[in-house]
Each structure stands twice: as C-alpha cells, then as structure tokens.
Design goal:
The protein is 59% helix and 4% strand. It is mainly alpha-helical and 332 residues long. It is globular and about 75 Å long. It has a four-stranded mixed β-sheet with strand order 2-1-3-4. The longest helix is centred in the middle third of the chain and has 31 residues, at 169-199. The protein starts with a helix and ends with a strand. It contains 15 helices and four strands.
C-alpha cells in the first residue's frame, strides 16, 4: 500500500507541485524540500539498490530488481487476466459490505463543486492509476493491492457524506444512518459469514492441503485472533519426523517451521531446507543426484505432494498419504 502510493502516482504529485509553484501558491524551495523528504523516506531502499548495482556490476539489473523484483511480467501486464480472478473478486467484494461505494459515487458526482476542479482532477488521476494497477495485476494475492484504491474511494465517500450532510435535514439523516450502518454491519457480517457459508454448503477447495486451518474462517474473517494453524502444523511436523530427518519445505511452510523450532527449542537434530535460504547440502532442484548422496540414509520428508510446493525432482518419490502432515520421500 505504501510503496504503491509513494511511486505510482509520483507523476501526479510532481505535476501538481510544479503547477502550484508556477502559480505562486507554493515557494519554489518547497520542490527541493519535497524531493529531499521523498528521497529520505526511500533512503534505505535506494541504498540497497545502489549496493546491488555495485556488487552485481549492473545498474540496469539493480533498478529492475528494485522496481519489479521477480514480478516484472505481472507489474507490466496490460491485460485484465488472472487465473485467480474468482477468488480475488470474492475477497475484494468483502470490502463493500457497507455504503462505501454509493457514497463514493455521490462524492465523485459532487467532487468538482465541493473541492474545485483542480483538486478533483488530481484525486481522479490518482484513483485511476491505483485502480488500473490493481485490476490488471495478475498475482494470487491481488486483492491485497486494492488497499490504495480503497483509500481513494474512502476519500470520495467523505466528500459524498459532506454533500449529503449539507443538502437537507433528510439527507443529513441518510448520511448519518449510512455511516452508522457501515460501522456496525461489517463486523457482524464477517463474524457470521463462516457459519452461513457452512450452512449453505459452501467450502473453499485448495490444490494444496493445509492441515489445521479452518479455510472459511481464515478467508472470511478479517481478524485472526487465535489463528494458530501454522504453529500447530510445525509442532505436528516435528513430532512426526524421525530422528536426524531432513524436511524440504516451500517458503510458506519453511518459515513457520524455522520460527517454531527457534522459539520452542524443538528438534535441533532436523535439517530444514527451503524457503529463500541457502541449502546446507546440494540443492535438489539443481543437483538431485548430489542431493540424495549428501543426505544418505537420513529420513526425508516434504510438506506437500503438489508442485510448486514440492520440488519437481522429488515428486516421483513422494509417498501417497501424509502422516499426519509430512509426506515421506521414498528415495531412489
């Protein structure tokens, strides 16, 4: 949310600042002060980018990494396409169990009259940039990138509330009622949503089995108090694994295992491999033969039997059923 607000609308910010200076609404020194503040805020990230350019010897690659990471194709995507669009639409729609959208529409209708044409155009441009980025960003957690768009919709809704409040006593009552309902209804809806979904026979099916997690509660309830499925998974995995075992885990399961082992002092005899960490033995993706030779007769487990959560080289050797959370690898 923060870096999308800081970077994507930057041309709008610069244009507005230059116009205000040209019209003598701001002193010219404010441009330098704003630039200095922006660079200071981004200072740590800029330093990391410069360091990467020096170490790697490729400034273009460093800037590309800073702007896009491993997701250049998704960031620069120009089509509205995603294999996860149904889930993202459903999760995004949960933000509108309130009167935010109708109030925002009223706000945009009255925006020019309430705050002036220049401010309306500016807010409209920022909103359009954030919405376009969100709509065509095809990643599994696309719904999280709606936050800047929601902030802009809330800004428009505030104008809508002010417009209704000033229109008449009747519309003032409507505005206040809409605000109260928008505060009270969502928590009640979210709290009851899992029960309603189960009663309706609705369920969330995943390609990857996640033991201990109540998927309906996890996805339909925004607050996560006592959501300890990751810890229960890690503890169960350590209880299941044989002595001196090796566990190969994807990033989403490696770090809960690593954190729980460190905080609980569990199973230091086990070797954890995966995540984004350097392996202590040859990587099975790059050198499968050397990997198997390195671990020898040690028991070997994976946390999933589907790609990409299980390395391709191990899939042919994974036993069918987990017991209870880890899959045993029958080494060649």
């Amino acid at each position: 949310c923060v870096h999308n607000f800081a970077l994507l609308p930057l041309p709008v910010y610069v244009a507005v600042a230059v116009v205000l200076v040209a019209r003598k609404r701001l002193p010219s020194s404010s441009l330098a002060a704003a630039a200095a503040a922006w660079i200071l805020g981004a200072g740590l990230y800029i330093t990391m980018t410069v360091e990467l350019a020096i170490v790697g010897g490729d400034a273009f690659a460093a800037v590309r990494s800073a702007l896009f990471g491993r997701y250049a194709g998704q960031v620069l995507n120009v089509a509205v396409s995603s294999t996860h669009w149904k889930a993202n639409v459903a999760l995004s729609a949960m933000n509108f169990v309130n009167f935010l959208l109708p109030l925002a529409v009223i706000g945009w209708i009255r925006m020019r009259r309430r705050i002036g044409g220049a401010a309306a155009v500016t807010l409209g441009a920022i909103t359009a940039i954030e919405l376009l980025f969100f709509i065509r960003y095809p990643v599994p957690d696309q719904f999280t990138f709606m936050l800047p768009s929601l902030a802009m919709l809330a800004t428009a809704a505030a104008v809508g509330i002010a417009a209704l409040y000033d229109a008449s006593r009747r519309w003032r009552t409507v505005a206040i009622t809409a605000c109260i309902c928008s505060i009270l209804v969502p928590p009640a809806f979210f709290a009851a949503a899992p029960s309603f979904a189960r009663a309706a026979g609705f369920d969330i099916k995943r390609k990857r089995r996640l033991p201990f997690r109540d998927e309906l509660r996890y996805w339909l309830v925004p607050w996560k108090h006592n959501e300890d499925s990751a810890e229960m998974f890690a503890v169960s995995a350590f209880e299941q694994a044989d002595p001196d075992a090796v566990i190969v885990a994807a990033a989403t399961s490696y770090y809960p295992l690593a954190v729980v082992r460190k905080t609980h002092g569990l199973r230091t005899d086990i070797t954890l491999l995966g995540g984004h960490e350097r392996w202590s033995v040859p990587n099975v993706v790059e050198e499968p033969g050397a990997f198997f030779r390195a671990i020898g007769d040690r028991p070997l487990y994976v946390v999933s039997n589907v790609r990409p959560y299980c390395p391709e080289a191990l899939l042919p050797y994974v036993a069918g059923k987990p017991s209870p959370v880890l899959y045993r690898v029958l080494k060649p």
